[in-house]
Amino acid sequence: MNSNYIKTVLAFAIITANIILDHFWAPVGILISPIITALAALMINFDSKIPNIFIRSVLTFFVVALNDIGIKLYGGGIHDTEGMGVMNLFFMICAATGFVIFVACNFDLSLAFKGILSVALFVLLAFLHLHFFGWLGLGRAYI
Length: 143
Hints:
Elements: H1 3-24, H2 26-31, H3 33-45, H4 53-74, E1 77-78, H5 81-105, H6 112-133, E2 141-142
Antiparallel strand pairs: 1-2
Helix pairs in contact: 1-3, 1-4, 3-4, 3-5, 4-5, 4-6, 5-6
C-alpha cells in the first residue's frame, strides 16, 4: 500500500481522535486544534507523492474543515453565540497554520501558475466554509 494513503488516513484519524477528545473533555480539543491540524497538514503535505497539487490543497483544507465541523457538532459544553465566535477564531487559526504548511511544503517555481491557483482554491474553500458553516451547531448542549 502506498505511504501517502496511510499518511492521509492517519491524518484523518488524528482529527477524528481530537473530535472525540473534545466531546468528553470539552476545552482540550478546541485548545489543541491548531497543533492537531498542523500535524495532519504536515502528514498530508510533507514529502508527499500525491501528483496533483489541487488534491493536496483540498485534502489539507478538509482536515481543517473536518476538525471544525466535528467540534461544532459533537464538542462538549453549551454552544452559544460567544462559543461560535471562539470556534470561528480557532478555525481561522487552524486554517492559517494549514495554509502556511501547505504553501511551505509545496513551494515549487516550476508550478507557479498551478501553485497560485491551488492557494486561491484553499482560500476560497475557507471563505465558503465560514459562509455556510459559521453558525453550525448553535444551540447544541452536551453536558
